[in-house]
Every structure is written in structure tokens, then in C-alpha cells.
């Protein structure tokens, strides 16, 4: 009797499974997929051992101005005054604990995904030699902002054709000490910032990734193309090369801007333990790299699992929105310090994003590490003497 009933169960189960699967497959075939994912070859993620060993150092950070800021992505200081750009399109200054709006590049309303292109989204922010702010707005382009008067001056507009193409997703910038040259990234020529998840999942190398703007001649040059989601950029202390984070590939490229190697490029760090977002100088002569997501090893890395399976990515994005997919990304926060040659010096973790979540940048100032975030409603500050 038991074999008969198990056979009946099996047949019933398979019939049920088939009756559910066939319509689901039918629906999935018919549904449009917003992305055309490419297979990507990533190496097995590095083991989280030695200096990369998981810890809870980031939980020692304090949250500042909680619920008074939205997504403070990138941070700079002029003296003790802090400046950041927020998700509601503002450039704000924080002086003596008070938050004031300095400037807006776009205009309201702000707050929804639909508003973002008109509202604007200031991402990378830097201080120039005359204490003016240089800002990369994802939708509007490169701007110079006078922090005293709030006056904004457009340097490079996303509407301008550069080598026959418009900028679609201006992301980060780095400025020479004399303020003459600005190196900046355009993350994609297809996707805008609000669709960054599509950009990561599609894995295409469609942006003109590193560009140079000369503030004297007003010329824009394309220096590098064919990277997959170029993101944060940082000039070396000697200003002989620029580091470019290639987010989708979990690596950092180096482009030489002066010296014998000028115009050449090579790999600075590859196969990183997470997806690098912004990169900034550290006081030890190295670099701070913030990871927007982690590739756990040992553990399961969703990104690595999906990298060579475009058909699964298609299914996912036919059925789920970007907002829903984001919920499956673990909230693991990780910041690493690299030496001047690209080896790992130390790492700070918050394994479940308890205190610090969605880190976009680690900016060092007066013995503290200020942590920007593209999503959190606060800035975190970590005392480097206490880690």
C-alpha cells in the first residue's frame, strides 16, 4: 500500500508542480525584461581572513544628525565645517551641529524615483584650492559651488555631447591640488543613478568611464572606456595616477595621468571582498575604500552566484522590482584601508549593518572616519583611536 500511496503522492506532486510551473514559465517568457544581462567572470571571492577577518569595529561608530539627513553620499570638510550632498538634491553644510542648505542644483519636488532626474542627486563632492566645492550631480553634471554664497556654476552639463554622447550617470570626481583638472566618472551611457541595480545586474561595459575636465581650457576628454560601473575616483598623493573603482567587477583600475606611464592603465587591486563604491585618501598615504555590498567567503555571495547566469537575472527582473530585489542584498557594511601599493592594511566591519548600513564613502578628518551612505538618514563617525 505504501508504494502505491507514494506513487500517487509523486504523481499528484508532479502534476501540481507542472500546473504551476507551466503558466509561470509562460508568463516569464512573455514578460519584458528591463535588462539585457551579460555573463561576467568573477574569481572566487577572497577569504575573509587575516586583515579581512570579520569584526564589529564599525559598531563603535556614533550616528550623527540622525533623521535630519537623507543619504549623505559623499563628505568633505573645510576647517571644521562639514559638507555633504543628500538624496533630496541638496548640498548642505553642518557647522556647530546646525544643518543648513547651501545650494540646490536641480529643483523640487523631490522624494520619489520619478522626481530624481529633475531634483538632482549630488554624489561626489570635493574641495578646490580656493575653498570652493566641486560637485558631481548624477543627473545634471559637474558644478562648482561657492559654500559662502551658495552660488552654483555649471562646468560640464549632462546635456552637452562629449565625443558624440551625453553623460548619463555622473558619479564621482577628484581634483588636482591646483584646481586645474577634474577627473570624473560617468558610470553608464544607458542607465541613470536611480537604476544603478539594473546597471550592476546587467554587467555591461557601456560607459565612458573616466573623463578629464580642464578648468582653464574648459575641454572635456575621455580617458578610459569599457569599464563595468566605474564609480569612485581618487588621485594619488603624488598626482601621477587616478584610481577608478570598477564596482561590478569588484576591482580598482589605475590610470596614469603624468610621468613615463602617462595615458597607460593597469590593475591596482582585483577580486575585492565586496563591491567598491567611493575611494578617498587615508592619512597613512593609502586609501579608504567603502564597499556597497560584500562577497562573503566563506558564505553565499548572491552576486557571484548570479554573475554567470543571465537567465536567472532575467527571471528575477521580469518578476520583481528593483526595490524588492534590494531587500535581498545583505546589509553587511565593510570599509577597508589599502596601502599605497594596494595591499590590505585593515578592515572595519558591521556584519549585519546594525549601526552602519549602506556605506558609500569613508572620509578621514582629524582622527575620525566619517561614513557617508547612499541610503541611511545619518552620518556615522568612527574614532580611529578606538579601533
TrEMBL record:
Gene3D superfamilies: TolB, C-terminal domain (2.120.10.30). One of its GO terms (molecular function) is arylesterase activity. It comes from Psophia crepitans. The keyword Transmembrane helix applies. Belongs to the strictosidine synthase family. Its main location: membrane. Residues 171-259 form the Strictosidine synthase conserved region domain. The gene is Apmap. Signal peptide: none annotated. PANTHER family: ADIPOCYTE PLASMA MEMBRANE-ASSOCIATED PROTEIN, STRICTOSIDINE SYNTHASE-RELATED. One of its GO terms (cellular component) is endomembrane system. Pfam families: SSL_N (PF20067), Str_synth (PF03088). Keywords: Glycoprotein, Membrane, Transmembrane, Transmembrane helix. Transmembrane segments: none annotated. This is Adipocyte plasma membrane-associated protein. It is a single-pass membrane protein. It is found in: Membrane.
Amino acid at each position: 500500500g505504501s508504494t502505491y500511496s507514494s506513487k500517487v503522492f509523486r504523481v499528484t506532486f508532479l502534476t501540481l508542480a507542472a500546473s504551476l510551473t507551466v503558466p509561470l514559465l509562460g508568463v516569464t517568457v512573455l514578460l519584458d525584461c528591463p535588462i539585457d544581462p551579460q555573463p561576467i567572470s568573477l574569481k572566487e571571492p577572497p577569504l575573509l581572513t587575516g586583515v579581512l577577518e570579520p569584526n564589529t569595529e564599525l559598531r563603535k561608530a556614533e550616528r550623527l544628525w540622525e533623521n535630519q539627513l537623507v543619504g549623505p553620499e559623499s563628505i568633505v570638510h573645510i576647517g571644521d565645517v562639514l559638507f555633504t550632498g543628500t538624496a533630496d538634491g541638496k548640498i548642505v553644510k553642518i557647522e556647530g551641529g546646525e544643518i543648513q542648505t547651501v545650494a540646490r542644483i536641480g529643483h523640487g519636488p523631490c522624494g520619489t524615483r520619478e522626481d530624481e532626474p529633475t531634483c538632482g542627486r549630488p554624489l561626489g563632492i570635493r574641495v578646490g584650492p580656493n575653498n570652493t566645492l566641486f560637485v558631481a550631480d548624477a543627473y545634471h553634471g559637474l558644478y562648482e559651488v561657492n559654500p559662502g554664497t551658495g552660488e552654483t556654476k555649471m562646468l560640464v552639463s549632462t546635456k552637452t555631447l562629449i565625443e558624440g554622447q551625453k553623460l548619463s550617470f555622473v558619479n564621482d570626481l577628484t581634483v588636482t591640488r591646483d584646481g586645474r583638472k577634474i577627473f570624473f566618472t560617468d558610470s553608464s551611457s544607458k542607465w541613470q543613478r536611480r537604476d544603478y541595480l539594473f546597471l550592476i545586474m546587467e554587467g555591461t561595459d557601456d560607459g565612458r568611464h573616466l573623463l578629464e575636465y580642464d578648468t582653464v581650457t574648459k575641454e572635456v576628454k575621455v580617458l578610459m572606456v569599457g569599464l563595468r560601473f566605474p564609480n569612485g575616483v581618487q588621485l594619488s598623493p603624488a598626482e601621477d595616477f587616478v584610481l577608478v573603482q570598477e564596482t561590478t567587477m569588484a576591482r580598482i583600475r589605475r590610470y596614469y595621468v603624468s610621468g613615463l606611464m602617462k595615458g597607460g592603465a593597469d590593475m591596482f587591486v582585483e577580486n575585492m571582498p565586496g563591491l567598491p563604491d567611493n575611494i578617498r585618501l587615508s592619512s597613512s598615504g593609502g586609501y579608504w575604500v567603502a564597499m556597497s555590498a560584500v562577497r562573503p567567503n566563506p558564505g553565499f555571495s548572491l552576486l557571484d552566484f548570479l554573475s554567470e547566469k543571465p537567465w536567472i537575472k532575467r527571471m528575477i527582473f521580469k518578476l520583481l522590482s528593483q526595490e524588492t530585489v534590494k531587500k535581498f542584498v545583505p546589509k553587511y557594511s565593510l570599509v577597508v584601508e589599502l596601502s599605497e601599493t594596494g595591499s590590505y592594511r585593515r578592515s572595519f566591519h558591521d556584519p549585519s549593518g546594525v549601526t552602519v548600513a549602506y556605506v558609500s564613502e569613508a572620509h578621514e578628518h582629524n582622527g575620525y572616519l566619517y561614513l557617508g551612505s547612499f541610503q541611511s538618514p545619518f552620518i556615522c563617525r568612527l574614532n580611529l583611536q578606538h579601533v
